[in-house]
């Protein structure tokens, strides 16, 4: 189809404007404006068109900016005002239903929504325009909507605590599209903005690899890897002649293992199995191993698949029955963990 490679992102911020957010109102505007400036910069760098929509919600839900070119976005200072209760379900429903009416003719369209709240749902049943006045029916309506959204839709929420996370899961939000933020301080809100920015970076880089939506937008690790996401990322297995997998039988340094296996050690040739949460630098390569076939996938696409931005980021091994993550070592004396494997690129 003509223009099919024209990436068009529809990014929505759905912001809690209830009374309890009043002490953070200035910071909400600052963080939202920073996110919009970041989106404008990355859209130009990645040659993607980005259109921004902003909803604010308290006793009612109001769209204050609709599908506007990110390069022409004003500050939210004029439109963010706090006061009232928390119509979280109504805001989620209204934002997604209205965005679904956006034309998707030509180009490759993708929808990414972040809902930010500092409290629990308590006002949607009284909110004008909601499909039901019964809280249970509203929850079912949101869960049904999320379940039936097309694969080019990503809906994520930031909540203040574990209780909020449990409720968001009851509403149908995928667990890896739920993040907890510290709603008690401006520092907590600044950190929430960073989480949103990292998730957006992962989303936009993923778009260039053919990934159109995500149910693990806040996750960086093995739990996002499966045969579908590998296919969507355009990953091809490396030639088996280009690598070896060596069982690690004892606690020893990485260079020692490479040399013992009959190969000269050169910096970057060896990858260790990720066994604990650790920081991965922007320059480090990663590899993904399919356990049953011993196929290895590597290259920039593997980093994009795991949601790793072009910056240092913490990654966790997670539990994945089918895939294992390997990380490139640039150290000669990294101690390897017994009963893991060493990946050597020949």
Features:
six-stranded mixed β-sheet; alpha/beta; 346 residues; 29% helix; 24% strand
SSE order, one letter for each helix or strand: EHEEHEHEHEHHEHEEEEHEEE
The assigned structural class equals alpha/beta
- State the end-to-end distance: 41 Å
Radius of gyration: 22 Å
Q: Count of helical segments?
A: 8
Q: What percentage of amino acids are in beta strands?
A: 15-25%
Low-confidence stretches: none
Strand order of the largest sheet: 3-2-1-4-5-6
User: How many extended strands?
Assistant: 14
Helix fraction by DSSP (H/I, runs of at least 4):
25-40%
Textual characterization of the structure:
The chain has 346 residues and is α/β, with parallel strands linked by helices. It has eight helices and 14 strands. The protein has helices spanning 25-46, 88-99, 135-148, 162-170, 186-208, 227-232, 254-260, 300-305; strands at residues 7-16, 49-57, 61-69, 108-116, 153-159, 178-180, 243-247, 270-273, 278-280, 286-290, 295-298, 313-315, 323-328, 341-345. The strands form three sheets. It has a six-stranded mixed β-sheet with strand order 3-2-1-4-5-6, with helices on both faces. The protein has a six-stranded antiparallel β-sheet with strand order 7-14-8-13-10-11. Strands 9-12 form a two-stranded antiparallel sheet. Strand 10 and strand 11 (295-298) form a beta hairpin. The two termini are 41 Å apart. 42% of the residues are buried. The mean pLDDT is 91.
